[in-house]
Design goal:
21% strand; single chain; 13 helices; 7-stranded mixed sheet; alpha/beta; 418 residues; 5-stranded antiparallel sheet
């Protein structure tokens, strides 16, 4: 669906500040993206990916057929050594520019007037002209780009905790396919859950283990998943994962010497994660059906991406992963990854690997190709492996094949005749 409809979510990208904002389009609504404010009713029925200008609190579509002000430049031998940057080279004052904006003149026309009234523009080098025009366009002609919500777009934003390359590495190593069953353990947002759910589709199942008192479903709403798609998502609190190991609960009861404590105090012993939120308590009865599903089913993939220690979670969910299932753990600490690697190595696994994604943007322009100075150092350590179980298994089965002992036919020996 490439047409914007009423009630759908759209992403507004400000070319001046780089800020992204995802909003739902109701009727007669105003959208504020710092420092711009405009009405979004005119977007109904338009296509995604178009550029707009804000003129008198309204969006005006930019004619992309007209040639841009900035053109690719080649290397030139000029220099700017004779240009005096004292502010007197521009004839137009700030009051003149504000007056043009009040009359509704577009930013393109304002930039053209600045070029015509600059006494030093023609003396600049081609590199300086392109840089000067880009600066003035971003200041006086900020564009609003309307984009369709997508996982890659959200991962590329500044608020995302996962880079696009790290997210792609996790999805690829977890071997997520359409119709599979996966467990996703993450905190703060549901970007990874949304990516896995989008790959799984309607025929699969995604179980999210959330840390806070409410499930994370922000990105699932922004992607406009259907009701059938949302039914494939199941949620289970992180603090109740200890119930998967009843032996540990019984040991805690025997150690305390009392069995009259309520469920909340018992589960507090198994509460995983260092951060605790105040508010409404989570009731186990609301997730009892999901608990039975988690306890009885075997899953194809287990993905853990959290800021706390994932080792206790791995111990509790390892048995929920089927034979030949894929495990992926993403964390920022190498010592934690090595502890998890030793655990899965003792439990029998194959294709065990620990990698650290290194990512750097490179500007590619004629005569100006260089790496970006503001790079991100690392995206965290990613552990991935495939679970192996002893025995012989049939395709699609989680139970080993027990070979029945064959009966050895008795051999009758004829007695010798006397």
């Amino acid at each position: 669906m490439s047409i914007i409809k009423h009630g759908t979510h759209v992403v507004f990208l400000n070319s001046k500040t780089g800020e992204q904002k995802c909003v739902r389009l109701p009727r007669n609504s105003d959208v504020y993206i710092k420092p711009l404010s405009f009405q979004a009713d005119s977007l109904i029925g338009q296509r995604f990916g178009q550029k707009y200008q804000v003129v008198k609190h309204k969006l005006v579509k930019i004619d992309e057929s007209s040639p841009p002000l900035t053109e690719p430049v080649e290397h030139c031998g000029k220099t700017n050594e004779f240009i005096k940057d004292d502010g007197a080279t521009q004839i137009l004052s700030q009051n003149d520019i504000e007056e043009m904006k009040s009359k509704g003149i577009t930013g393109d026309e304002i930039v053209k007037n600045l070029v015509e009234n600059s006494t030093s523009f023609n003396v600049k080098t081609e590199f300086s002209k392109a840089k000067w025009l880009k600066k003035k366009i971003n200041k006086h002609q900020p564009n609003i780009i309307v984009k369709k919500p997508s996982i890659r777009l959200f991962a590329s934003s500044s608020v995302s905790k996962l880079r696009p390359d790290v997210l792609a590495k996790i999805i690829n190593n977890a071997n997520i396919w359409s119709g599979s069953k996966a467990i996703v353990v993450e905190c703060k947002d549901d970007l990874l859950t949304s990516a896995v759910s989008q790959r799984v589709g309607l025929n699969g199942t995604v179980l999210q283990v959330f840390e806070q008192r409410l499930p994370h479903n922000m990105y699932c709403k922004w992607l406009d998943f259907s009701q059938e798609h949302l039914k494939a998502l199941k949620y289970y609190p992180l603090k109740f994962l200890g119930k998967l190991n009843p032996n540990a609960e019984q040991e805690d009861l025997n150690k305390n010497g009392s069995s009259n404590c309520d469920d909340e105090s018992i589960d507090q012993k198994h509460e995983l994660g260092k951060r605790k939120r105040e508010g409404k308590t989570v009731n186990f009865e609301d997730y009892k059906t999901v608990f039975e599903f988690l306890k009885t089913e075997k899953f194809d993939s287990l993905v853990i991406s959290a800021f706390y220690d994932p080792f206790p979670v791995l111990e509790l969910l390892w048995n929920s992963l089927r034979s030949s299932g894929n495990l992926v753990i993403r964390t920022e600490y190498l010592s934690v990854v090595l502890q998890c690697a030793n655990f899965v190595n003792e439990k029998s696994c194959s294709e065990l690997s620990v990698v650290d994604q290194w990512f750097r943007e490179i500007q590619v322009l004629p005569g100006r190709t260089h790496p970006d100075m503001r790079m991100q150092t690392g995206g965290g350590f990613i552990l991935s492996c495939t679970k192996i179980c002893d025995g012989i298994y049939e395709h699609g089965s989680d139970m080993p094949v027990v070979s029945e002992p064959k009966e050895i036919p008795s051999v009758q020996v004829a007695e010798p005749m006397e």
